[in-house]
Amino acid sequence: MYDFKYTPLKNPATDLRLVLIVPARKQDHLSCILNSIPDGHLQKYQALSYTWGEGTTKVQILLNGQRFMATPNLATALRSMRCETEAEDNKQLPFWIDAICINQEDSAERDEQVRRMKSIYQHAQQVVIWLGDYIEPSDQYYHLDLNKWKIDGIETTSEAVAHAALKLVTFLEQESIAQESPVVSIRLEDFHHSQNLQLWAQLSRLFHRPWFERLWVIQELAASRKAVLLWGKLQIPWSRLETAARLILRPGKASLPLQIRRILPLVGAHRITQVALQSMFNVDTSDILTVLHNTQQAKCSDPRDRLFAILGVVEDTNDVEIDYSIPVQQVYRNWAEKRIRRTGNLNILNACADSSRSGDLPSWVPDLRRRFGQDKPLWIFTQIGASEAWKHTDVLRMHVVEEGSLAPEKAAHGLDAVGVLHFSDDGQKLSVSARPIGFINVLTTIGDVETNLQDPTDLTARLYDIVRDWESTIRSAPGCLLDERGEVKHIREGLLRDLRPWVKDYEVLEERLGRWSWRCQFPPDPEAEDFKEQEAEMREFERNLFPRVHGCQMFIVDGHIDGNYGTVAGNCNAKIGDEVWRLGTSLTPFILRRVSELEHRLIGPCYMFFYTGASGGYGRQSRVTLI
């Protein structure tokens, strides 16, 4: 038997290959027919969204009567979608499947098809999301801690159990609708199986399937006009699962017993926000950085796809050129330089977290192979909040110049006060006007709320320990200032990130921090009349406090201003002795590490609570070169 050979598409910009699954009985060999369709968008078809799985393992199928090697997950999906009779098959539309319909060995065709990916999914009659069979090998990597779920074991997975779990999804959707409209009478409490932990555990298995971790599915889902989820032979609309997940994340007034409410954080519904664009938080599709931030946990086999795979869901595509022939480092550097030159601002630096650590990228280029800095309040401020107010002005725009082209008389007339930047001839260094703030002389531990957490539904003790540890470190620093109550002065502003007016209800957060600290020291009586209300309020406060603590650390700058506290993401690897600067017209300060008298490494963005954007109080304007 010969191996399948592709015939080149006559017009890769318009033509498509589509797959027909040959009908057969369950035990028969899997066979497909691949056809090239001129002007493919005129043909009715459906597109498959799935995970490739391990690329090293392949199974044989027949494609146009010839041998074709497919991943086991794809082969299982094809079998599940295969009709048993020709009568059924006549009703089924052909499929567009990337692993089969694109010649993966032809880089030019691959580049062209990737550019068309959004259009391909947009024109499909529906997108079929394959999440696997009722039980999958990947389930062995996902271990439910049965002690936390308060159940002895999980029933053997079967179609009946999966069907009941999807019925639970339907009632969750109805509950969500009922909370918005009093007309709906069917409520979650009417579904007597809602208290069955076995079904919740099975639903949790569904949410933890590898599909939710894949980067490409974000574009595939966002572009679809209709999406259905296929689980074994069972099928439900994607919108139903997404609505149910939102209710799990924010149960509101849902009448759920305490044992169910306690396991909701364990179900994994948050994984919906990793793939569904409309469910993501703080996303602005006109700013590619916000989408990159929300998709950084998604997986892809080629690190260049960090940029390429999301182009179909953003408007901000001017600076990215799809080209799989150049190395990933050049892809990232080209994108960063083009963006800085086009926009004239430095907001891309907010995505850097010690990018030069690996030694193959300049420090001013985001290394998308690694996590961003995780100071989320600071990120929201720089990318969603303050930048929105200035989006249509030139206040943040700097002047990009070539070395030596800035005349001294222009600089003397204030051009440098607006901000000047330029690139070295080899494109590896970025020089920018800057003002020094000071040196880091105190640095706390990195807040880790999650590691070895005994009960993921109760963060109180861990959060309180971290806050107390940070306060103790700062209190012991030389010259630490105390207020009239004997508390460390201004630590609350540093902890809560006083980013007014972009942080709403800051005063409420500050007041609740005091009440929360008191309750941590003196737990209330569970029998008290208002215990449930207070508990709900404190849990909501902890939801706001978590991103301000987890993965972050506080520091003190040895400077010239009262209350010089700051915070930085722990994965930036800040050190005592690092310098804090304001770069150009940036909204926030940055931590730099001096390499030589004239050159620095960018460590990452930071927050300082006294920072107002004014130039007063900072050192004299100079210039730094980032390498």
Automatic annotation (TrEMBL):
Residue ranges constituting the Heterokaryon incompatibility domain according to the UniProt record: 45-220
Superkingdom of the organism of origin: Eukaryota
Protein's recorded name: Heterokaryon incompatibility domain-containing protein
Protein species of origin: Phialocephala subalpina
Taxon lineage: Eukaryota, Fungi, Dikarya, Ascomycota, Pezizomycotina
